[in-house]
Design goal:
Elements (H helix, E strand, L loop, with lengths): L1 E5 L4 H12 L3 E5 L13 H5 L4 E4 L8 H21 L4 E7 L9 H15 L4 E6 L6 H4 L8 E4 L3 E2 L4 H12 L6 E6 L4 E2 H11 L5 E4 L4 E2 L2 E2 L12 E2 L4 H11 L33 E2 L2 E2 L11
This protein binds NADP nicotinamide-adenine-dinucleotide phosphate.
The site of NADP nicotinamide-adenine-dinucleotide phosphate has 27 residues, from helix 1 and strand 4.
């Protein structure tokens, strides 16, 4: 099956391409890095020609309110127009748990527009809403900063291994469209300020983390459970402490976390292609009971 991964050079996109190829699918990464641009349309029709499935894991190069809205609106509209013309059978899009609760944020208003466009199109679709990737935690430490301190909300968060999100997307891309939304979260619930503190400590970042219920999360003030999935979410198995340990061990900069795409200076190459290990029969979240990813019906 030909599956085009739009944003296939990104953090989760590169892992998804590896995962799909490992399963024997014809997975094509598409992004500016590969000569395909959803904003200008360059290379898009050629990339999508003959594809049964497209998976949109693009992200906006800028998180500034107007820029991010322009990105997701234009990118998604262009993608849908080309995919409709190519008779794509399934449009999978990656979004964020709590998007509809975070509309005070320009980023989440833009993600909402992306979801609405996917929902309104004629192409059968599935939206996967994931919680924050472990790799994204250092970026949160850049969200509400002064010179020597970071203000972070103590709201609950249930971060997830991006490997597992890539594996869930591969499951979804090879299953029948749900014409609906699925949520996906990690196994443990933390307070956001505690996670950021731990990640910064691991990264030898000496700045102080100030717990502040009014701190902004990409422009939005967080209700306690704003980032937590509802009942029925797929619950992963990868744990934050293992990711921290593995990341520190594999880092070439001794004792510090490796650079990620989310660092402000340039993007890293993604050499890691681990296939996520699923299988846990779900777990409990503050909003209810989780389910196993194996409930997805795989189409051969
Ligand atoms: N990070 C998280 O914690 C998290 C959690 C839940 C959901 N999500 C969602 O997951 C998605 C992917 O996130 P990520 O962190 O994997 O992103 P990322 O690493 O920043 O990668 C972004 C991807 O978008 C591509 N892209 C940028 N402009 C493009 C354009 N004009 N045309 C086509 N492709 C373009 C980039 O291509 P180039 O490399 O060629 O520039 C890259 O492949 C986002 O939509 C985000 O909202 C993220």
């Amino acid at each position: 099956m030909k599956i085009v991964v739009i944003g296939g050079s990104g953090l989760v996109g590169a892992k998804l391409v590896d995962n799909l190829r490992h399963r024997g699918h014809d997975a094509l990464p598409a992004s500016p890095h590969f000569g395909v641009n959803t904003i200008t349309g360059k290379g898009l029709a050629a990339a999508i020609a003959g594809a049964q499935v497209i998976v949109d894991v693009t992200n906006s190069p800028s998180f500034e309110d107007a820029a991010v809205m322009e990105f997701f609106r234009t990118s998604c509209r262009n993608l849908i127009a080309v995919a409709e013309a190519a008779h794509v059978r399934h449009h999978v899009a990656l979004s964020v748990v709590g998007t509809d609760r975070l509309l005070e944020s320009g980023y989440f208003r833009a993600k909402m527009v992306q979801e609405d466009l996917v929902n309104a199109s004629r192409i059968p679709h599935t939206i996967l809403r994931s919680t924050q990737f472990f790799e994204f935690m250092p970026r949160i430490a850049q969200s509400d900063v002064s010179e020597d301190a970071v203000r972070v909300s103590p709201a609950l968060v249930q971060p997830i291994a991006s490997d597992e999100v890539a594996a869930a997307l591969a499951d979804i891309a090879t299953a029948s469209p749900r014409n609906g939304m699925i949520e996906h979260a990690g196994p443990d619930v933390f307070h956001l300020d505690d996670v950021v503190r731990r990640v910064m400590e691991a990264d030898r970042d000496a700045r102080k983390v100030i717990t502040d219920p009014h701190a902004r999360y990409f422009g939005a003030q967080l209700r306690d459970d704003a980032l937590i999935p509802d009942e029925g979410a797929i619950i992963g198995v990868g744990r934050l402490e293992d990711w921290l340990k593995d990341s520190l061990l594999s880092s070439s900069t001794e004792g510090r976390l490796p650079a990620t795409r989310y660092d402000t200076e340039g993007y890293r190459e993604h050499e890691d292609s681990a296939i996520a290990r699923f299988g846990k029969q779900g777990g409990d979240t503050p909003r209810g009971r989780g389910v196993s990813p194996r409930e997805l019906t795989v189409e051969r």
